Amino acid sequence: MGHLAVRDLYEQLGEKMDSLWVRVPQNKALMTVLKKLYTEEEAEIIVKMPYSFADVHRIAKCTGCDPARAERVIESMADKGLVIDIHANGRYYYMPSPMIIGLFEFTMMRVNDDLDFKTVSKYLHDYMMGDDLFFFSNFHSDSQVSLMRTMPHEEALSDQAYTEILDYEKASALVKEQDYCGIGVCSCRHKTHHLKKKECDHPLELCLSFSVGARYAVRHGLAREASHGEILDLLAQSVERGLVLNSDNVQRRPRFICQCCACCCTMLNGISTYGYPNTLVTSSCIAEVDDDACLGCGKCADACPINAISLAPVKGQGKKKKKPIIDEDICLGCGVCALSCKPGALKLEKRKQRVIHPETTFERVILQTLDKGTAQFQLFDDPTKITHRAMRGILGGFLRMPAVKRALLSEALQSRFLSAVKVGATAMGKGWLMKV
Questions:
Q1: Residue 74, pLDDT above cutoff 60
Q2: What is the SS3 assignment for the chain?
Q3: What CATH number belongs to 6-130?
Q4: Cα 409 from Cα 127, distance rounded (Å)
Q5: What pLDDT, on a 0 to 100 scale, did the predictor assign at position 5?
Q6: Winning range, highest mean pLDDT, from 136-145, 204-213, 384-393, 402-411
Q7: What's residue 269's pLDDT?
Q8: Cα separation, 47 vs 42, whole angstroms
Q9: Is residue 162 within 8 Å of residue 299, measured between CB atoms?
Q10: pLDDT of residue 318
């Protein structure tokens, strides 16, 4: 394997990560994080391996390593969350971890590790939360596809809304259909714990993973296997804790549920601190107030994790001095406000405007990378082939044209675009990706 100049190696690593599912703008904090987490050997393999999932033999061919060495280094990185894997067709396939959901979460889910968590936490925080660069790069006003979607607390739903929303939006139904579950450390709370910024008393072990996501995390020591009963117990406790449920932005085979709080959650802070509502996709519900039942106590405004509820003065001589006003432009439809309302004046109702969530992870990744301008790297993923490099250049230029992107992401053309990509993926031997 030919060696890259050390000075440029980590910059190339940053550029490689920027070409995945999430944009990764480069700055000094990022370079510090990468140098702390990746050895030079690991960084060089990441730079040279395919952008999408590949088995060890293909990785060895791309990197110039012998297969045994490639497997050793790749498995070591998977143990550290720097590479993600999927088992299919009797073998493991690997790809570099995106920044989220990936490097950030899996790094901070590591336990019993000699990693300098205090330093890594500082620079991860500086990178993602020091300013709005990361959020602007991924969740600006034109962004249409996010990684995560909010799930409504079922206890907060009105009777009518409960019957109208689909099972994939109900956490209890989602858990019951899983064949394998895991529980791990919440990356956001772990980070704020090391920064001495954790304001809540919520436990660290609240990250729920499922199916291939859980198998990956458990196999590499990033989570422990859990029963359906334990998962459902934690979700029941989240009602008492007033935590926001955020899941993979897919309808079928989701891989995780986060139980988020306003003080620690990176994604919630993307909305409340920096004002990027596209950080999370809303549920198909929205909070509504029964003015007659409302006491004007303001507990709902205090409970809202993204400051979507304000209190307005009430004219008149009654005891009620204020009433809650819901900012419908940013309300997530999580139901945390309703859980705090003792008289039951707040409930979640079905939104009038339809909320569309991608059907599968494969579809979400294709749409997300199209949205971010990196779909060409998923479709032509070999960094060593001249033909792939040429096609990335041609296709990337075409897909980045605003009119083209808008058309392909529109309801009118989206399904046809996805169908064409699926046909191409199957022809390239990657049809299995649509089934995981």
A1: yes
A2: CCCCCHHHHHHHHHHHHHCCCCCCCCCHHHHHHHHHHCCHHHHHHHHHCCCCCECHHHHHHHHCCCHHHHHHHHHHHHHCCCEEEEEECCEEEEEECCHHHHHHHHHHCCCCCCCCHHHHHHHHHHHHHCCCHHHHHHHCCCCCCCCEEEECCHHHECHHHHHHCCHHHCHHHHHHCCCCEEEECCHHHHHHHHCCCCCCCCCCCCEEEEHHHHHHHHHCCCCEEECHHHHHHHHHHHHHHCCEEEEECCCCCCCEEEEECCCCCHHHHHHHCCCCHHHCECCCEEEEECCCCCCCCCHHHHHCCCCCEEEEECCCCCCCCEEEEECCCCCCCCCHHHHCCCCCCEEEEECCCCCCCCCCHHHHHHHHHHHHCCHHHHHCCCCCCHHHHHHHHHHHHHHCCHHHHHHHHCHHHHHHHHHHHHHHHHHCCCHHHHHC
A3: 1.10.10.10
A4: 29
A5: 62
A6: 204-213
A7: 96
A8: 9
A9: no
A10: 66
What is the percent of the chain where pLDDT is above 70? 97
Counting residues of the chain whose pLDDT is more than 90, the rounded percentage is 83
Topology of domain 285-350, CATH: Alpha-Beta Plaits (3.30.70)
Which one, of 305, 372, 365, 368, lies nearest residue 134 by Cα?
372
Mean pLDDT (whole number) for 314-342: 89
Residue given tokens 């993979």 in the structure block:
248
pLDDT at 2: 53
Task: Parse the chain into domains and list their residue ranges.
Answer: 6-130, 148-279, 285-350, 361-435
Q: Which residues contact 5 (CB under 8 A, 6 or more apart)?
A: none
Other Cβ atoms less than 10 A from the Cβ of 336: the count is 28
Average pLDDT, the chain: 94
* Range 9-14 average pLDDT: 97
Residues 49-66, buried b or exposed e (16+ Cβ, 10 A)? Answer: bbbbbbbbebbbbbbebe
Could you give the C-alpha distances from 145 to 79, 305, 371, 401, in angstroms and in order? 29, 22, 7, 17
Q: For residue 71, which amino acid is it?
A: E
Question: How far apart, in Å, are the Cα atoms of 365 and each of 125, 230, 270, 359, 407?
Answer: 25, 30, 21, 11, 17
CA-closest candidate to residue 390, choices 375, 374, 408, 376: 376
Token pair 């419908």 in the structure block, residue: 328
Q: Is the pTM of this model over 0.90?
A: yes
Residues 365/430, Cβ–Cβ less than 8 Å: no
